[in-house]
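pinned: reference chain
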Amino acid sequence: MSRFIDLTGQRFGMLTVLCRSEKDASGVCWRCRCDCGKEIDVFAGNLRRGHTVSCGCRRVLPYIGKRFGSLTVIEKTEETVRHGGARSPLWKCRCDCGNTTLVRLDSLTSGNIRSCGCMENEGKVQKMRRAAGYVGGTQTSKLLRILEYNRTAADGDMIGVTYDRRSRKWRASLRFQGINRRFGSFDSPEEAARVRREAEQKWFVGFLESFQ
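pinned: its structure tokens
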């Protein structure tokens, strides 16, 4: 039988031995406190041979604060997910958009996951916008529909030409890229329509021609 060696008070890497562990039925096991504050039970042989030198945080620390795409690693969690035939720990990360998410470490280091999902969603939105004819944040197909409608509409029925019953005047306006532009009040729909058509040439047609 090998001679018992009391390791109480000794340091092994980041571990300080506190006392004999109650979990040493299959071998001499010691309760140790890591420099990070966590306590674990370690077999004496693993301590003396240098196989265990921390509670595991030594492997964790290099990743804390590291960026992978839009994700910054915050901490390793106790949560796990089944991966293959084993369970992998999940790491808590903060995305540049402000959300937090749990990710496997290998998914981060391989580049398979680079955001909380917002980048993927943004990509889907961009594809949908392109399919709908968006250019420079403006839906060109909508501009073309308005231009086509106003080309044949009666002056008083044009989009952007309205009648104000209180003032008994006709008004001309145009909305483009989220901004409402009003061009005044007129005595007749013909005058309002003329101003509206000039505005369309400047804002709508000018915009469309710039992307041809």
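why pinned: DSSP finds six helices and 13 strands in the chain. The longest strand covers residues 71-83.
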